[in-house]
């Protein structure tokens, strides 16, 4: 009360709405930033994310950071930048990505310098493949019409029992100096050819793991060795029985009478990772690190086809059972199917997140399987032109896959030191083999279906078969 007895004057009320709240502004700024971050469309390719980080002068990778964390870090950084700068940066990157995709979709065709030899090759392959395709389709129709579901179930049960009884049979050092790279059974299932990084190519007998012959030709790493489709069956000892390739870009052809090459393809000075014989045995495909694969006539040693189409190294190639199509897989994460009779590109396989290391055809002629460094295998259908199934196959790189001759099961090897067997009906795991103590480079299934072979970084080859 005032001294004169009058009530005190009321103070004017403060208007808090006019006061600035720094905390509220910070919260709203963070809310807007997160909203912008959610709306940003970033590339999913790991390499492109790193390039964007480099452009904005940030580390492309932090210790212990995976691909998802790196992408989220980029998203958080871009959300704090000026919108015009972000739009300009992403627009230029999107234009480059679109151009790269257009280049990936484009198929290059090179006219052969060998004149009519390529045309004769295509005619030969057409004449060879069409009767085989007709016979395969007639057999498939007959099996479908018979509807022997009970017999199929019994055969599948027998196959499962056989796989469960498989155990390690023996072990052999195939390369005294460096890791083993590849192995393959002969058509009669009695021999194995191996390739090692010291350049050593050798043929071994199956039952006693005895070295029958050791070839001399590669001076650098040998990456692959394959048997001729008629080796030890129709081929005479002086005729072609095997072929091998190396990092020096040379392909050697071998017979059983000489440790020196029967013939050699001229060196391209480009690493050749894998080779594959055409089912006819007359042609050989080689996958090269110059983003191409090549088709060569083994009778004349003449290169007939130089096929581009991949943007990075082609690591593996395989022929369809009829011999009409070829499947290539590359380190650009894509696979491609080629019609050998016309030279056309038939199907584009897109879906792997990392490099493709191995490819293979199912004996039914329309299913394909690819194995990748993303630890998965994908099953593709040529008829529907899509991926039907993705197998979370291993805990590390899938190095090699092989489907048995009957198409009942598939074997895969991995850098996680395991071999796995998968049912081709539903692609379910049937068995895991642990025998090697280092990463496994390759696995193979014998044509008779009774043997498995694997080679690993520990320089050994191991044989697996059913227990007695």
Rough outline: elongated
Strand content bin? 25-35%
Q: Kindly state the mean pLDDT as a whole number?
A: 88
Low-pLDDT parts are none
Estimated radius of gyration: 30 Å
Query: What is the tally of helical segments?
Result: 6
Helical amount: 10-25%
Strand order of the largest sheet: 1-28-27-26
- What is the number of beta strands? 28
Instruction: Report the end-to-end length measured between terminal Cα atoms.
Output: 112 Å
What is the compact description of this entry?
Residues 44-96 form the Pre-mRNA processing factor 4 (PRP4)-like domain. The protein is of the alpha+beta class and 468 residues long.
Describe the structure.
The structure is a single chain. This protein is of the alpha+beta class and 468 residues long. It contains 6 helices and 28 strands. The chain has a 4-stranded antiparallel β-sheet with strand order 1-28-27-26. Helix 1 packs across helix 3 and helix 2 packs parallel to helix 3. The chain starts with 21 loop residues before the first helix and ends with a strand.
Give the secondary structure arrangement, pairings included:
Blueprint: H1 22-39, H2 46-55, H3 67-79, H4 83-105, H5 117-146, H6 149-164, E1 166-173, E2 180-185, E3 191-196, E4 201-205, E5 211-215, E6 222-227, E7 242-246, E8 251-254, E9 263-264, E10 272-277, E11 283-288, E12 292-297, E13 302-308, E14 314-319, E15 325-330, E16 334-339, E17 345-350, E18 356-361, E19 367-372, E20 377-381, E21 386-391, E22 398-403, E23 409-414, E24 418-423, E25 429-434, E26 440-445, E27 451-456, E28 460-466
Antiparallel strand pairs: 1-28, 2-3, 3-4, 4-5, 6-7, 7-8, 8-9, 10-11, 11-12, 12-13, 14-15, 15-16, 16-17, 18-19, 19-20, 20-21, 22-23, 23-24, 24-25, 26-27, 27-28
Helix pairs in contact: 1-3, 2-3
């Amino acid at each position: 009360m005032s001294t004169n007895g009058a009530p005190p004057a009321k103070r004017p009320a403060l208007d808090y709405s006019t006061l600035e709240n720094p905390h509220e502004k910070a919260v709203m700024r963070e809310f807007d930033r997160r909203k912008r971050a959610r709306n940003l469309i970033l590339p999913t390719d790991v390499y492109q994310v790193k390039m964007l980080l480099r452009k904005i002068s940030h580390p492309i990778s932090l210790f212990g950071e995976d691909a998802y964390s790196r992408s989220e870090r980029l998203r958080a950084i871009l959300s704090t930048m000026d919108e015009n700068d972000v739009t300009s940066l992403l627009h230029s990157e999107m234009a480059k990505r679109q151009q790269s995709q257009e280049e990936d979709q484009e198929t290059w065709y090179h006219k052969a310098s060998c004149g009519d030899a390529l045309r004769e090759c295509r005619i030969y392959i057409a004449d060879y493949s069409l009767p085989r395709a007709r016979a395969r389709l007639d057999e498939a129709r007959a099996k479908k019409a018979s509807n022997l579901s009970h017999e199929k179930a019994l055969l599948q049960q027998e196959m499962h029992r056989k796989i469960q009884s498989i155990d390690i049979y023996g072990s052999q050092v195939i390369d005294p100096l460096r890791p083993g790279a590849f192995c393959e059974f002969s058509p009669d299932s009695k021999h194995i050819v191996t390739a090692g990084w010291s350049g050593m190519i050798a043929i071994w007998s199956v039952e006693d793991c005895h070295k029958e012959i050791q070839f001399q030709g590669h001076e650098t790493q040998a990456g692959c060795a394959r048997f001729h489709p008629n080796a030890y069956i129709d081929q005479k000892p002086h005729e072609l029985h095997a072929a091998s390739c190396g990092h020096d870009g040379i392909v050697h052809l071998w017979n059983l009478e000489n440790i020196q090459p029967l013939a050699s393809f001229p060196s391209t000075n480009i690493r050749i990772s894998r080779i594959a014989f055409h089912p006819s045995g007359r042609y050989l495909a080689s996958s090269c690190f110059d983003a191409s694969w090549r088709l060569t006539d083994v009778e004349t040693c003449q290169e007939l086809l130089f096929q581009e189409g991949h943007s990075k190294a082609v690591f593996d190639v395989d022929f369809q059972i009829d011999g009409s199509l070829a499947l290539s897989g590359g380190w650009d994460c894509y696979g491609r199917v080629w019609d050998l009779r016309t030279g056309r590109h038939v199907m584009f396989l897109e879906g792997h997140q990392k490099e493709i290391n191995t490819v293979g055809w199912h004996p039914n002629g329309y299913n394909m399987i690819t194995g990748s460094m993303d630890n998965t295998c994908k099953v593709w259908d040529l008829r529907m032109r899509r991926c039907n199934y993705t197998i979370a196959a291993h805990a590390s790189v899938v190095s090699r896959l092989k489907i048995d001759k009957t198409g009942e099961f598939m074997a895969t090897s991995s850098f996680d030191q395991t071999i796995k067997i998968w049912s081709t009906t539903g692609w379910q795991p049937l068995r895991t083999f642990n025998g090697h103590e280092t990463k496994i480079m390759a696995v193979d299934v014998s044509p008779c279906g009774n043997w498995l072979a694997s080679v690993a970084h520990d320089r050994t080859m191991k044989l697996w078969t059913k227990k007695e």
